[in-house]
Every structure is written in structure tokens, then in C-alpha cells.
């Protein structure tokens, strides 16, 4: 895997040949900006449905091992 | 003609004339799947009960005179498109047991249109790959030669349509994942303009590149399926508010007044002569149909597209895939020393090699100290590649290229060399970078294997692509040939 990664990264070097002075970056190919919607209460999934795929749940919450050491 | 070889339009006619019912058609397709899928392996999951239930509903709609063009027609859906109550695995161990609590927008649309879903199709894990060999479950085989790959990542969808295991299918395309397998399997495939089809409920890979589209037997079917799934959806903030035209209006059988360019950089070194010949022959047909062919078009920065893509797509993927932490859904490792250990091992065991490779590439390209050299540089070159296309479309209505530089390769042939595998998308990934639409149509055969022709247009020009593809199919019969299964 390490050798393959180096090979892939070598292939990225070609970009250094391109003059990008004063070229703005493109994050998205379309010029949609500030897409907003009204902040309204709408129907959503129930807690039961949301937790249906949880590997471990308790008291309507996702359960994980303790985050903080004692 | 047997029922599994029908187009959507032909099946619709038969259903409308009551010569066949949707339940009968669905049964015939399920039998076909039983007969050939052991060899093709297009499906991760077949859903016969659901399909027959939906078919019975469709028959009621047909009887009530409430049938649209897709009502009662059996389809396949790529397994990264959420289907409520039906596992959606992305062909990954990570999501093997994931049952979505909601439907993707496109599946909602298909259901509203009265479609019948036969099952979920195999893919490269999280859509990362070009051969469907990266599926965590099994490889799909090309119906034209069972020893060869169907392409990827929507290889299951392409193989299903090609092998008569569905009348059409949905796929997703981030760098060629609809068009390359469609070309390899001799079917039609559309990557719509970025933003045309809602990504709501599509499991995210690279959000600025991903687009859902149809794989079909002919161009008319492609327009029908695109009509059904396209259009605005407020649940995807990148969904375009522009109204969708009826794309069947653009199916005109001549190309007079059209100027079609052939970008010289796409007949690249390493392209097979049989592929180049088939596409050149196809271009000659476009000329006979009245198009003016411009052989002097250049997209000078094409050679940088591969590097741009393999920086941007893994960067976005590394952010998107951070959600798989074994807490909310999906595979969870629980024998670790603490929560962090559980998370790390969840990823270690849940993801396959290619997914890990791309997450590492992405996090590296985004990391402090490398961000400017890799990610920001790639985004700037992305702008330059987009401008190349704008320049080309200022003199041409459309461009044509080969869909892939080679015919389908053998299973296992490229799995040890990621760069060689990445090169199979060299003709398709610049299109996602620019966000423009691309259509592949069967263009002929080389060594008995399918060759695709890719038609490109400016943003929103799906109608132009359909017109060119449709006219071409009126004077050719490559798309009517079926694999010897």
C-alpha cells in the first residue's frame, strides 16, 4: 500500500506545471449560492426509526463506551 | 422478442394494450434473474415479494387508466440509493445490515411513477472503483464475456440491463461510474448536469461530483427515466431550481444545423485502435445525419484532470466517510479498549482497501501544510478545466469522445495497480469536474466487445445529448444486440 500511495502522489505532481496565478478555485461547478429555506417545523423520522440501525441504544440514546477516563 | 429484451417504451405499449400485465412481466424478469444471475452476479439483493406487490399496484393503476411511461416496468436500483425497509449496503461490510428509514428522492419519484423494483445492484464499495471488483461481497461479470469486468462503479446496474435482468436501472456517477460500465456492457447511460437530479438519499461519496442517472436499452428510454427522476428537490441544497423540460421532445431523427466537436486530447496515447476506429465510424454516421463535424477542437488541460479528480474526490470522501463511526448505524466493533479504539477498529474492519486508500489520500491532501499544494491547487485547475469546456462549447453544440480508452478488461487484470485502474476513467472524469452532462451510447464492437461513444454538452443540455444519441440509434443497431448468455 505504501508504494502504491507514493506512486499516486507522484502522479499529482503534474499539477505544479499549471499556472494558476489569479485563477479562483472551484468548489462546486454551478453558481448556486446561499440556498436557504424557511425554518419551519416539519414532520421528521421518529426516534424509534432513527435508532433502528443503532448498534447499541438505551433510553432513546446512542450508547457508547465511556468517553472520559475516571 | 422475449420480455427481458424489451425497452421501456415497448413494455409500456404491451401493458397499455393489456397484452401483458405488470405481474407477468415482473415474474418473467425474476425468472430471468434466476436463470442468469448466478453467472452475472449483478444483484446484491433481489426483492421478489416487494416487486410483485408493486407490480400488482401498477396493474391496478393501468386498469384505472392512470399509467405513466414507467408504470409497471421492472427496474434495478444501485445499492447506494436508499430504499426504505430494503438494505442499502454500498457493497460494504460497513453497511451490510443497514436498513434505511427513508427513501431517496429518486426512489420516491420512481415509486410515484408506478415503477417496480426488482432489487439492489452490486457496485464498487462506496462507488470507489471502475470494475465492481471492489465490492466487499463479490465481483460482477460482464454479460458479453463472463471473464471480463462490467466496469464500475455501477457495474451491477449496467450488467443487469445488459443481461436482461431489468428493463432499466439507476446508477450514480462521480467520475464515470454510470458511463464507463454502460459503455462496457453495451447500454445507454446518462450522467446528468450536476444539480439536475437530487442527491437526497444517495449515500455520499464526493458531494461536488456525485450525480444519479439512468442506464437503459435505448436513448428514448433514457429520456423517459430522466424525465421521471430529474427536477428540483429542496432537500438537496445543490438541486437546481430550474424547471425540467420534457426530454422526449428532443428526440428528432436528424442532426442538421448541429455542430459537433471532436476534442483531439481524447484520442489519447494508450487508446486501443479498435476503440478509436469504432468511435470514428460512429462520428461518420453523425455526419451522414447532417451534423457538421469539427475535428479541430482542443481541451488543452485534459491531461491534468486525473490528478485533479484524485485529489478532490478522495478529499470530499474523507470528510463524508467520517460519519461511519460505529455509533449511529452500520458495522460496529465493540471489543476495543475504549470508545476511540472501537471507532478506529470499526473503520479498520468495516472498510475495504480502496476505501481506506482514498480516505488516506483525502486526509493527506487536506492536511495542514499540504492543503495549498494539493487541494487548493486542484480546485484552481478545476476552474481551468471547466473553462476549457466553456471555450469548446462556444464553437460547438456538443462534443463526442470515446467513453473509455479500452474494451472491458479481464477480471483481476488491474486490481494490483490503482493508477492503471484510475486510467480507465480518463475520458469520463473531466465531465464531473466541469459538472456538465454526459451520455454514452453503444457505438460498435471491437474484438466482439462493446465500445461506447460519449456525447457531451454544456450545463442543462441533456436535450442536445438525447437528440444526438437518438438520431444515431435510428441508423445503427448496436444497441439492439444482446450478449450470448
What does this protein structure show overall?
The complex is a heterodimer of chains A (70) and B (485). Helix content of chain A is 23%, strand content 6%. With 70 residues, chain A is mainly alpha-helical. The longest helix of chain A is centred in the N-terminal third of the chain and has 11 residues. Chain B has 485 residues and is of the alpha/beta class. Chain B has a domain of 254 residues: Amidase signature (AS) domain (Amidase signature (AS) enzymes, Alpha-Beta Complex). Chain B contains 15 helices and 11 strands. In chain B, strands 1-3-2-4-6-5-10-11-9-7-8 form an 11-stranded mixed sheet, with helices on both faces. In chain B, helix 8 links the parallel strand 7 and strand 8. The mean pLDDT of chain B is 96. Chains A and B meet through helix 1 of A and helix 9, helix 11 and helix 12 of B.
What would CATH call the class of the domain at 3-256 in chain B? Alpha Beta
Global structural class of chain A: mainly alpha
Tell how many strands the DSSP assignment of chain B holds: 11
Largest sheet of chain B: 11 strands, mixed
Give the uncertain stretches of chain A in residue-range form. none
Which consecutive residue ranges of chain B, at least 5 long each, have pLDDT under 50? Answer: none
Order of strands side by side in the largest beta sheet of chain A? 1-2
CATH-defined superfamily of the domain at 3-256 in chain B: Amidase signature (AS) domain
Q: What is the CA-CA span between the terminal residues of chain A?
A: 38 Å
Which second-level CATH architecture of the domain at 3-256 in chain B applies? Answer: Alpha-Beta Complex
Question: What number is the mean pLDDT of chain B?
Answer: 96
Topology pattern of chain B, helix = H, strand = E: HHEHEHEHEHEEHEHEHHHHEHHEEH
- Largest chain-chain contact? A-B, 37 and 57 residues
List the total number of helices of chain A: 2
| Number of H- or I-type helical stretches of chain B | 15
Instruction: Let me know the number of strands of chain A.
Output: 2
Which percent band covers the strand fraction of chain A? 5-15%
- The third-level CATH topology of the domain at 3-256 in chain B is Amidase signature (AS) enzymes
Give the overall form of chain A. flat
Q: What Rg of chain B do the Cα atoms give?
A: 21 Å
Q: Strand order, biggest sheet of chain B?
A: 1-3-2-4-6-5-10-11-9-7-8
